[in-house]
Amino acid sequence: MMHDAPRTGADRALAPRRRDPEGRRRAILTAASELVVEQGAAALTHRAIAARARVPLGSTTQYFASIDELREAALQQLADEIDASLAALEPHAAEIARHPERALDEILEFLNDPRAVHADVALMTSGTTDPRMRPLALRWTDRLIDMLAAHIGRGRATAVAVYLDGATMHAALHDAPLGRDELLRALRGLLDMPD
Amino acid sequence: MMHDAPRTGADRALAPRRRDPEGRRRAILTAASELVVEQGAAALTHRAIAARARVPLGSTTQYFASIDELREAALQQLADEIDASLAALEPHAAEIARHPERALDEILEFLNDPRAVHADVALMTSGTTDPRMRPLALRWTDRLIDMLAAHIGRGRATAVAVYLDGATMHAALHDAPLGRDELLRALRGLLDMPD
Amino acid sequence: MMHDAPRTGADRALAPRRRDPEGRRRAILTAASELVVEQGAAALTHRAIAARARVPLGSTTQYFASIDELREAALQQLADEIDASLAALEPHAAEIARHPERALDEILEFLNDPRAVHADVALMTSGTTDPRMRPLALRWTDRLIDMLAAHIGRGRATAVAVYLDGATMHAALHDAPLGRDELLRALRGLLDMPD
Amino acid sequence: MMHDAPRTGADRALAPRRRDPEGRRRAILTAASELVVEQGAAALTHRAIAARARVPLGSTTQYFASIDELREAALQQLADEIDASLAALEPHAAEIARHPERALDEILEFLNDPRAVHADVALMTSGTTDPRMRPLALRWTDRLIDMLAAHIGRGRATAVAVYLDGATMHAALHDAPLGRDELLRALRGLLDMPD
DNA sequence: TATGAATGAGTCTTCATTCAT
DNA sequence: GATGAATGAAGACTCATTCAT
């Protein structure tokens, strides 16, 4: 008589583990975030998420009370990821006026990362449509301004942040982002303006 | 026996008269554009459009083969409207280097017009999600660059356009757009950069 | 090459006519009313109604905006049917004090009609659960009281109505309703009470 | 190292302590009964019961094989509670013919207790819909009839019971039950009828 | 041609029930 | 036993699209 072989770790990797709430939740959230990046927050559906996460449909509502909550959590997670990019920029904030090239490397890394760029775009566009998402949409810009304002003044900091939002949209709409030199000259121009 | 009085132009504005294919098509398109501006391109439905246009449901599929085509046409129309804003800017393009204040009035008018701002955001958003919409999304930026490049060089023109895209997103995410002085200083900074 | 034979009236009787909004609506409402009678208002589902009415699922929401609206319409229709029973009683209201037997025939007809009895029960129980249904649930009792009050006084009329509600519940819970004599003696007892 | 203090009876009232199968079963049943009273038997769900009883979801299926069994048990319990009301009436049954006022106090107490009234309605409703519930729905009426029949005859007893069912429905559908005098006159009328 | 009824696919959500732990 | 995660079958509702009229 046959009996089921004991499950090994390898089995579980394929068909998501029978009991792993944390992992399930993470899988769902990850799938949702990916879909937001790829198709925008408005296109999220339970079915698409479940399929992407290789999880039964019912699981998506088990872990998130509604599609809105799920969308919000996905955007939240993307915002957290962007925060990491911002953290990488922080050490160079102090000397951005004299040595913008160093901050530039971090900025380019961001603009060259399609996932980061589309995540940011998804956050911004969600904010324009859904007022509840505004704080999330503004978080990165506001934090960047705060970070820079101490060193270059609030006016210049805002100008730089606005320009970078434009550069992000540009990257999302082109195959390649703006070039290093182009960015550098623009940044210098904004840093030279009276505050 | 009563008979219908001949409809006048004024009537038409309310409920497009029968047997006026052009007018009806325009009414549908106008309604669709408004909905895109108000709720984003993803939220378009035949029913909402028909209700807004005060037109029978069947008309929407009569004049446009699919909801995608309708969405595309609505975005097209919004792009055309934005082109008009751009046309207003054109006379001041030549002297933007020396007298950016004059162009500024047109820019502020655009940024203070929520409809224009949200139309632009809808175009950009669509472009980041749907490749077919990219040319439409890029049209305004590209035209602006072309317009300015002749006078201030392509590098500076691009920087200004990128900054203005950022300013548009900013306006869409805040209750009030950037202030006149703020914009002016930033523009001057970008115009002063080496091309 | 084959072509579809033109539909005849007979065809349409089987598979509900292609285009007959009135009939469709009526078929859905009838099916819903039957289900309410058979299973109670709480058990209504779109699927059950569509299956009973031999109509595609989507039709049920085309004609009624929500399941609540559909339930309400079904109860409304049942209430209207009960009103007809009441109308049959009306001619005998004036002489109920001296000749209760005549009214009794109408009452027994009602109590012996399972559909009418269960419809009334469904109305009453809906009223106890859903406040919006209360007016509907009370309509028949209130009308009966008004009808009788003019002739036998409001106190006696209320007592008779209350007793008949009890008799209706009794009929719904037994295979056979109360007997003619039983009813007659009880009615006489209540008619003899001081008002 | 801390250890849990032994639970006292007071604790139990809040969250039934572990390893108290009887108490837990009772808590679940009580919660279910309350929900039946408040929302009707059709609205019962495992989740709602578990939340109300402050008990893990799994417990509800542990102690009751299915939601139907749970619903049945809840109705059973409500029927038992009503029996208690009936027991209070019993001492006055013998003299109801000469002194109906004394029985009246008990009846009014019942009619003024929304929980009792709605419990009774829930029982009756279930009985009209689900044949298995009929015996439960009829228990109280039958017992009342038995109780009174010995003293006033079966015909009068039935008439009184039917009237009181009607009075119960009346109470469930109005903010205030029938008045004392109204009830008294009606009872006297029915007691005076020939058996 | 114009219209809105018709239809089914697909969306969100709830839940009974099972079962791994 | 006890628990809550897992799952899929419904449930309500929306809508693009087709098509009879």
Note down, in words, how this protein is organized:
- 4 copies of one chain form a homotetramer.
- Chain A is an all-alpha fold and 195 residues long.
- Chain A has 2 domains: 1-64, no CATH class; 72-195, Tetracycline Repressor, domain 2.
- Helices cover 73% and strands 0% of the residues of chain A.
- Chain A is built from 10 helices and no strands.
- Chain A is elongated.
- The A-B interface holds A 39-40, 42-43, 118, 121, 124-125, 127-129, 134, 137-138, 141, 155, 158-159, 161-167, 169-170, 172-174, 178, 182, 185-186, 188-195 and B 39-40, 42-43, 118, 121, 124-125, 127-129, 134, 137-138, 141, 155, 158-159, 161-167, 169-170, 172-173, 178, 182, 185-186, 188-195.
- Chain A binds a DNA duplex (21 and 21 nucleotides) through residues 18-21, 24, 45-47, 55-59, 61-63, 65-67.
